Write a sequence for this structure.
């Protein structure tokens, strides 16, 4: 009887743990679904309004239509330039990361470099997060000094591309002062 009670307590605890995990999972799925539906609804309204918005602007501000068109085209060109600049920086950073990982024979070096490219689009933390898996592999596979050197090189790579190359390149392409861009980056990091 005593053994059965102990067994029952373990089963009850196991069931409760599984229920907690299940409820957390269902809650996460529900939150994701709600966010996805909200985004879909906003996107639907934007798509539906895309055709009528120019006509509404013409009706409301007939003398300002040319100005609005110029603003829209300039902002579209600026956004495209920024995205191309961001992709260029991410690619450069990923190539250097790939060379470092390949040279140190880290398994999956191309995968980690590809992840670095994609996560670099997340400001500040994306590229740093992408360094965690190869860093763990390096700590397991390499000598501690070599692993720490690799981690330092990857962090230095990210800092050079994100802090020096990107503001210079974006400043030239967007016709903005690199000092202004550095101040904007510093303010964005502070805010």
């Amino acid at each position: 009887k005593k053994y059965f009670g102990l067994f029952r307590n373990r089963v009850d605890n196991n069931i409760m743990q599984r229920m907690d995990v299940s409820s957390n999972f269902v809650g996460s799925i529900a939150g994701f679904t709600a966010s996805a539906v909200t985004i879909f609804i906003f996107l639907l309204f934007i798509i539906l309004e895309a055709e009528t918005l120019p006509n509404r602007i013409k009706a409301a501000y007939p003398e300002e239509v040319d100005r609005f068109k110029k603003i829209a085209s300039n902002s579209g060109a600026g956004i495209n330039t920024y995205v191309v600049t961001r992709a260029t920086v991410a690619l450069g950073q990923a190539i250097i990361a790939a060379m470092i990982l390949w040279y140190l024979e880290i398994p999956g070096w191309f995968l980690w470099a590809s992840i670095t490219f994609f996560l670099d689009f997340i400001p500040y933390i994306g590229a740093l997060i992408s360094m965690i898996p190869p860093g763990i592999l390096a700590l397991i596979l390499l000598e501690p000094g070599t692993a720490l050197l690799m981690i330092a090189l990857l962090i230095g790579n990210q800092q050079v591309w994100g802090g020096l190359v990107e503001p210079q390149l974006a400043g030239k392409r967007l016709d903005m002062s690199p000092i202004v861009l550095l101040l904007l980056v510093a303010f964005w990091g502070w805010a």
Q: What stands out?
A: The chain has seven helices and no strands.
